[in-house]
């Protein structure tokens, strides 16, 4: 079995080369690009994708093994989702600083201990979005400072129940599913940071 290198410059036979780019839509949050690219066989095709500034996900773990979660309505799917706290990285903002800010703004909590878990790419076929996941411990309650257009509820659940919620379809948000699996592996000492 051959393991492929993941670096595009080490696999030029797979690379798509940008020939031209145009901005199709510029919103206050997202931008849509339409690029003309040359495929490995020389053909020219277009690629449309969403430009996203990136985001963070926080796994807020209490000393008793429970985690802080959120319920939030998500307009594109017209339903309330159970999620880990998360938020968009502001221009020139460090991802850890963003994680600390988002946890405090959305939940009121601060954490004394932060560990980087991983980076995920949740929509690789149509967006350049990445999410940096952090584990937060040493949680201290405070007052939330939600954005003017933001409405959510926070609650706690034993971390040991999260995978059952994933299995039952109660949690379907991809960042929360991945965070639940990471948290399970970390708490069971199967993976280390």
From TrEMBL:
Keyword hit for Lyase: no
Cofactor section: Mg(2+)
Biological-process GO terms, alphabetical: nucleoside phosphate metabolic process; ribose phosphate metabolic process
UniProt cross-references to Gene3D superfamilies, sorted A to Z: Nucleoside Triphosphate Pyrophosphohydrolase
One Gene Ontology term, aspect cellular component: cytosol
Molecular function, one GO term: hydrolase activity
Reactions accelerated catalytically: GDP-alpha-D-mannose + H2O = alpha-D-mannose 1-phosphate + GMP + 2 H(+)
Claim: Hydrolase is one of the keywords in the record: yes
Domain Nudix hydrolase: 50-179
Record-annotated membrane-spanning stretches: none
Swiss-Prot/TrEMBL keywords: Hydrolase
InterPro entries in alphabetical order: NUDIX_hydrolase-like_dom_sf, NUDIX_hydrolase_CS, NUDIX_hydrolase_dom
Protein family according to the UniProt entry: Belongs to the Nudix hydrolase family. NudK subfamily.
Name the record gives this protein: GDP-mannose pyrophosphatase
Organism, as annotated: Undibacterium baiyunense
